[in-house]
Amino acid sequence: MHLKTKQREFQKHVLKAMEGKEITDQLRWKIMSCKMRIEQLKQTICKENDEMTRHTEGLLRIKEENQKHYRRAQRHQEKKEKIQKHNRKLGDLVEKKTYDLKTQYEHLANLRRTHILELTSVIFPIEEVKTSMRDPADVSSESDNAMTSSTVSKLAEARRTTYLSGRWVCDDHNGDTSISITGPWIILPNNGDYSAYYSWVEEKKTTQGPDMEHNNPAHTISAALCYATQLVNTLSLILDVNLPKKLCNSEFCGENLSRHRFTRAVKKLNANILHLCFSQHVNLDLLHPLHTLRNLMYLVSPDTENLGRSGPFEISADLEDSMEFVEPSAAGETDESGDEHQVEMLQSQSTQVSQPIASSSAGGMISSAAASVTSWLKAYTGHR
User: Fold this and answer.
1) Residues 282, 276: Cα–Cα separation, whole Å
2) 3-state DSSP: the chain helix, strand, coil percent, rounded to 5?
3) Cα(292)–Cα(186) distance, rounded to whole angstroms?
4) Residue 183 and residue 38: Cα distance in Å, rounded?
5) Is the pLDDT assigned to residue 163 strictly greater than 70?
6) DSSP character at residue 186
7) Which terminal residue of the chain, N or C, has fewer Cβ atoms less than 10 Å from its own Cβ?
8) E runs forming strands in 93-176
9) Helix (H, G, I), strand (E, B), or coil: what is residue 150?
10) Average pLDDT of the segment spanning 247-263
11) Is the pLDDT of residue 384 over 80?
12) Mean pLDDT, the chain, integer
């Protein structure tokens, strides 16, 4: 019993000692685990510190780039503001220059208008002259009493009708008036009928001896066309407009122009006049391709609002295509060779593409034109 009691005590003492040992071992294991965890945490902290350092460096680089971009954006904004300011200045300058240019164009137009009105009032006055020509329908009705009134009215209507631009149009000025230039004795038929010149040329071919008829219609027609050509050439210089056809006023001064050559020169003159009318924005309803002096009168009229203008303009192809008045018999004549015609076409084309003549010299054209007219009149009077 005593041994058993000792044994139990010893067992208790051993259990108590083992319990302390177990607690010690547990604490050691916890310490070791904590140390290992601490070591792992240290390693993790080192890695995180390294990553944070890298991220901090990247952040610094990004901040520096952002600062560079910001400074660059500021410079671009300053450049943008400078460009906008420069554009505003340029816009104001362009607006001012445009206004100055418009003012100069208006001043130039007024100068041209003054020169043209002075030219056409002093040297080349163009006026409408009433003629006492009777209507052929009235003459026919008097000669034939049996003719009905409807036939007379149809004849009168046919006389006042012209084929223009592919259609028949009414011409109220067809033959009842004439247009004079430089004086009432130098006139042209208003309807563009220059058959009196053809008849005079044919008669002179068959009649020998000097021509004693000073009031011959052929003389007035030739002189009027000569003056009209000189006026058109002078107007082209004043208005600074290149003419599409090259034509000299001496073309109509010859005494023996054939019908083909005469009609071709008249066609050039009409084309040049229409070209000037287009450049000055003359009302197209007033123009007729065969009315030489009437178109010219509309061009230089004080009522023409755009007389003296500059700038682009449109050409009416219908009016230009309607100037086909060369008779079939005259078209077949070959008084001029094909080489001559080709040279003239090349001269006309070179005239169109040539540089425009400076309008500053237009002021002295009036005096030179007056001298030219005076010398031509002296030579023409002496020849007659």
Assistant:
1) 9
2) 70, 5, 25
3) 14
4) 128
5) no
6) S
7) N
8) 126-130, 161-164, 167-170
9) helix
10) 82
11) no
12) 75
Is 285 strand, coil or helix?
Answer: helix
Kindly report, residue by residue over 285-307, the tens digit of the pLDDT: 888 888 888 999 999 988 888 88
Q: Is 118 helix (H, G, I), strand (E, B) or coil?
A: helix
| Cα 42 from Cα 73, distance rounded (Å) | 45
pTM above 0.85, yes or no: no
Distances (CA, A) of 99 to 93, 104, 213: 10, 8, 59
Instruction: Report pLDDT digits (tens) over 73-100.
Output: 999 999 999 999 999 999 999 999 999 9
Cα–Cα separations (whole angstroms), residue 304 to 284, 288, 307, 312: 12, 16, 6, 17
Q: What is the largest CA-CA distance in the chain?
A: 196
For CA atoms 365, 368, 370, 373, give the dihedral sign.
negative
Q: Which two tokens stand for residue 60?
A: 């610094």
189: closest CA among 291, 85, 40?
291
Scanning the structure block, which residue is given the tokens 């130039």? 108
The length of the chain is 384
